[in-house]
Amino acid sequence: MAFRTPFRSVSTRARQTLRIGMIPADGIGHEVLPGAKAAIQALGSSIPKTEFVDLLAGFEYFTRTGTALPEDTVQALQNDCDCAMFGAVSSPSRKVAGYSSPIVALRKKLDLYANVRPVTSVASSPNEKPDVDLVVVRENTECLYVKDETQIIGPNGKEARAIRLITQRASRRIGEMAFKIALNRPRKGGFKHLTIIHKSNVLSVTDGLFRETVRAVPTLPGVDGKYDSVTVAEQLVDSAVYRLFREPHIYDVMVAPNLYGDIISDAAAALVGSLGLVPSVNAGDTFVMGEPVHGSAPDIAGQNIANPLAAIRSAALMLRHLGYTDGADRIERAADEVIREGKCLTPDLGGKSKTTEVVDEVVRRI
């Protein structure tokens, strides 16, 4: 997977033990996270001794306790863990009094301001260039996801309003990360390209601030021509989705506000066959949490047919962020080999294998 993490170092190399928080949360999170754990354990001495800390959160936990994200989980992540893996969370389409998404809350509490989602197809040969090879860099703390909503009775009946927050600070941070990723991605031919996704022709104030702030990153004090080799383009979000399906090869790194980044990365997953293949990391300056892009999939939960590869690949991204490049490479190569061979795949990819069978095959190849 052509992705390198040039973020501020949070390496734990000096530690003798790597403590990883494990939050399966809801639905198939309980089935795919063990696959990520097994892949990490299969690395042996490539990484420090690992300890896995089981933690609670999610809608299922909320229905039992009235709390979606217990303070004990937050404290454990902040004080006892070097990194974490998150499974999947159920998000009710109706309003549920007292419930708020724990993954959204964790991103804010741990200041995981970037959600980085590589979307890469697997070529028929390891030496061939993949048809799709892009990274969506999604701002993770603002936009409509601040969840500041109100409803009143007006002259036209019910009126629902949501406040959208875009700040210069958050836009600058995500812009800096996106430029670093574009600069450091190992691409053949030296192609380094960053596309800013916005809708400032309509939302000229909020998206306008995001667009202007990201564009200004190369002019920040101390940058001194660092990003001269990165070509910058812009795309309105609606046309970006259209071109994503028609011409995915034109994209390298895409940077977007929270809502657009969420939609674009899910849409891009269709280009590589399944949401069950697409990983991500929630990253900040001092912590990283791997998270498969897919949801909790209640329709297949408990059937042992969920695709574990997105969770496994997310574990690799998490390790890469921490500086364990060799271990990350081994996991990614093993996952790619399983996909390329096509004999051990879950139903979302047209196969008949069970979740546990795919995990066993990846572990064997690691």
TrEMBL record:
Protein keywords: Magnesium
Domain Isopropylmalate dehydrogenase-like: start-end pairs: 19-362
Annotated transmembrane regions: none
SMART domains xref list: Iso_dh
GO terms assigned for molecular function: homoisocitrate dehydrogenase activity; isocitrate dehydrogenase (NAD+) activity; magnesium ion binding; NAD binding
GO biological process terms, semicolon-separated: isocitrate metabolic process; lysine biosynthetic process; tricarboxylic acid cycle
An example Gene Ontology CC term for this record: mitochondrion
Family statement drawn from the similarity comment of this UniProt entry: Belongs to the isocitrate and isopropylmalate dehydrogenases family.
Protein name: Isopropylmalate dehydrogenase-like domain-containing protein
The organism of origin for this protein: Pisolithus tinctorius Marx 270
